Amino acid sequence: MTETRDTESDSEYVTLTDSVSNKSVDLPLLSGTEGPKVIDIRRLYAETGYFTFDPGYMATGSCASNITYIDGDKGILRHRGYSIEDLAEHSDFMEVCHLLLFGELPTPAQKEKFEHDITYHTMVHEQLNFFYRGFRRDAHPMAIMCGVVGALSAFYHDSTDITDPHQRMVASYRLIAKMPTIAAMAYKFSIGQPFIYPRNDLSYAENFLHMMFAVPCETYEINPVVADAMDRIFILHADHEQNASTSTVRLAASSGANPFACIAAGIASLWGPAHGGANEAVLKMLTEIGHKKNIPAYLDRVKDKSDATMLMGFGHRVYKNYDPRAAVIQKSCHAVLNELDIKDEPLLDLAMELERIALEDEYFVSRKLFPNVDFYSGIILKAMGFPIGMFTVLFAVARTVGWIAQWNEMIADESQKIGRPRQLYTGVGKRPYVPLEERG
Ligand code: CMC
User: Fold this and answer.
1) Tens-place pLDDT, residues 308-322
2) What is the predicted pLDDT for the residue at 333?
3) Is 166 a catalytic residue?
4) N or C: which end of the chain has fewer CB within 10 A?
């Protein structure tokens, strides 16, 4: 492979040469504003008869996007150019939603309007309440989320035409606004409490806490430190470029499916323990380890290739350094525990010791495995009173804006095509059909 710059057209390309046939093909080399260059292989099959093979997309850019940038080696995450640390410290979730959706932080007037418009959509269709009764009370809330969010397309027919920019925007607002309501309803249903209607005088995070923890018979006091932490957790999970669930949303949407169906697909993908389900898995893992003295034996199992045990909350496809979101969450964890007067949280002590030991262990060091966003988030959510089954639901609530921003970007992109990967066929070749009576 050779890399060349064409000075006349000021473009770059690489030349791939098939060493058997000695045939060559020039493929454009594209540069983004940051990050590695990419080889544009769209003409590769037409010109050479070869496909590429990249299960898990280890070296494949699936789209061009101007929303989120990650440098995994340096541990950098930025949305529209703003670092996640700055956003987590100075911004709030509604501002970040505006930033992701429209590309800019809002002016004060834009912020007021945006918050008003989102708030206006927080209630769900009353008929949807009955939908919950079809689920078992002990259903996992993520199972309920997949079903209810998918069902939104059966309720909001006036925002499913993806060719109409106005309908797309209404669907976007509806999804961001209704997701906390739907999530809190899933929780209330599971514990047999009445649904709590949204309150439009509260912020997005406050309203969510209210719908989760208020009951009709008493006044629910919102703790501002907990509400701040909730808001920060939403910010930290808002978008993460082309991860599994976002790619799922894009792939589902590439066929022209409606936004509610696409976001339900994203929720399904997020649920897995290698992705958003990891926060729940971390807490289960810490509970299983139980005590600091059991850490070495647990890590021996993790390192044993014949044992499927993983160190949950560790490792990332892109970050080969500390996940910047984990650093922010770890700090928040201490603030929330202090505020709630939890002097001693054994799971936090255990997690910190586990992290310390793992980061000194050759297995994790050589593979560049660091804590990711899910390592500490479960501990903070548990302290805030969320049951373990709700952890991934909270991730889904926060990630909805990222999914929606990426969906809007994709629909507006005129070069967008239906996603259709190819394969390396390894099955049986052509063979004659054998009648049933001759088989056996
Ligand atoms: N515990 C033990 N070994 C690990 C871990 C782990 N958590 N993660 C990766 N490895 C090993 C893996 O076995 C492999 O070793 P070897 O080279 O000897 O075969 C090496 O590290 C490279 O791993 P990989 O499987 O090629 O990495 P990947 O990019 O395919 O997987 C991952 C990334 C996040 C799926 C994986 O690290 C993992 O399953 N971690 C635990 C689950 C988790 O915390 N997920 C949350 C990710 S962040 C939030 C989100 O995306 O939703």
Assistant:
1) 999 999 999 999 999
2) 84
3) no
4) C
Query: pLDDT above 70 covers what percent of the chain?
Result: 100
The answer to whether 116 is a known catalytic residue is: no
Distance 114 CA to ligand 1 centre (A): 38
Please give the Cα distance from 245 to 223 (Å, whole number): 32
pLDDT in tens, 72-113: 999 999 999 999 999 999 999 999 999 999 999 999 999 999
In the block, residue with structure tokens 């040469």: 17
| Residue among 238, 249, 298 at smallest CA distance from 67 | 238
Question: What is the DSSP-derived secondary structure letter of residue 70?
Answer: E
Q: What is the dihedral of CA 249, 254, 258, 264, to 10 degrees?
A: -20
Tokens of 128: 């949807």
Atom of ligand 1 nearest to the CA of 317: 29
What pLDDT, on a 0 to 100 scale, did the predictor assign at position 201? 94
Task: State pTM to two decimals.
Answer: 0.94
Looking at residue 371, the DSSP 8-state letter turns out to be: B
Q: Residue 299: what residue type?
A: L
Q: Which of 407, 416, 417, 419 is nearest to 171 (CA)?
A: 407
